[in-house]
Amino acid sequence: MISTLDQRPSIVCGEANPMAPAWTRIVACQQESSNTASYTLQFLDPEQKKNYRFQPGQFNMVYLFGVGEAAISISSDPDKCDSLVHTIRHVGSVTFAMNRLGIGQCVGLRGPFGSSWPLQECRGRDILLVAGGIGIAPLRPAIYQLLKNRDDYGRLILLYGIRSPQDMIFKEEVEGWMDRRDFQVLITVDYPSDEWTGPVGVVTKLLRRVRVDSSRTSVFVCGPRVMNRAAAHSFLSHYVPEDEIFISLERNMRCGVGQCGHCQYGPKFVCKDGPVFSYASVRNLFGKDEV
Ligand SMILES: Cc1cc2nc3c(=O)[nH]c(=O)nc-3n(C[C@H](O)[C@H](O)[C@H](O)COP(=O)(O)OP(=O)(O)OC[C@H]3O[C@@H](n4cnc5c(N)ncnc54)[C@H](O)[C@@H]3O)c2cc1C
Ligand code: FES
């Protein structure tokens, strides 16, 4: 079954108390780049392990005892929910603390929260994915589903922008995708190494290298704010309709369930109404810096 924006699985910690984290154990850890690692987590409670479901694009609140919580997307295959992968860039208090944990140690999880990439609605269309840096993490579950149901879609294209070749995450997997004939993957870097022979520059420059049929293309975008804006505007100028451009937004989060107001985005809450929004639904807020 492929995800839709409307089919949200129930939160694991129970609708009655969405603030109580469920305990998980780190069972594997994969260093992806100098500041990013993927952590595989398993629920301690067999019932939670059995019942947990998520849709591509959703996130969990990851809780470190005595430190705090951070919103982290789920980067693993939605068909393999007995263990979940979170790919984390170590930038602040919670994520630095996560970096100090090892296999066997426990973290709390609340979720899954938020909306998902509209894979069901986009059946039959070309799918163009635009990822910037760690933004490929919430897109990876969608890629798994798209490849598993490859015949249900038209052309599948990934444009992936990274700072330098050493910053590529999911490297082996991305290289495997590049070898496929039914998946066009283009990568660009800001700072090339001596060995780099590929494109250099911002990810939107890659658009010159692909054919966009605006009448049948849906676009999924996830990256830094400036990249999200540039990508959305590039696709609009290629006449992709506003309601076929989907963007995953980032905001500081606390509760994750629409109660604290921390992630407010105009009249919307990114945790509850997003993080995946259609451009059409956020058009009026999108260009503004302090919303
Ligand atoms: C829906 C969603 C999904 C996300 N998915 C992921 C994901 O998959 N992987 C991932 O790595 N991140 C993800 N994030 C981002 C992550 O939630 C944030 O980076 C989070 O703030 C990290 O928490 P932290 O406590 O480690 O960092 P924080 O302490 O909150 O710091 C975050 C940033 O603020 C800066 N900062 C901290 N303190 C100060 C200060 N006093 N003054 C100025 N700057 C400061 C830090 O340098 C850092 O850049 C996601 C966010 C959202 C909303
Ligand atoms: S994080 Fe509390 S309302 Fe969204």
Describe the structure.
Helices cover 19% and strands 29% of the residues. With 291 residues, the protein is of the alpha/beta class. The model is unreliable at 1-6 (pLDDT under 50). The radius of gyration is 18 Å and the shape is globular. It is built from six helices and 14 strands. It starts with 21 loop residues before the first strand and ends in a 5-residue tail after the last helix. The strands form three sheets. The protein has a six-stranded antiparallel sheet. The protein has two domains: 22-113, Elongation Factor Tu (Ef-tu), domain 3 (Beta Barrel), CATH 2.40.30.10; 126-248, Nucleotide-binding domain of ferredoxin-NADP reductase (FNR) module (Rossmann fold), CATH 3.40.50.80. A hairpin with a 2-residue loop joins strand 1 and strand 2. The structure holds flavin-adenine dinucleotide and FE2/S2 (inorganic) cluster.
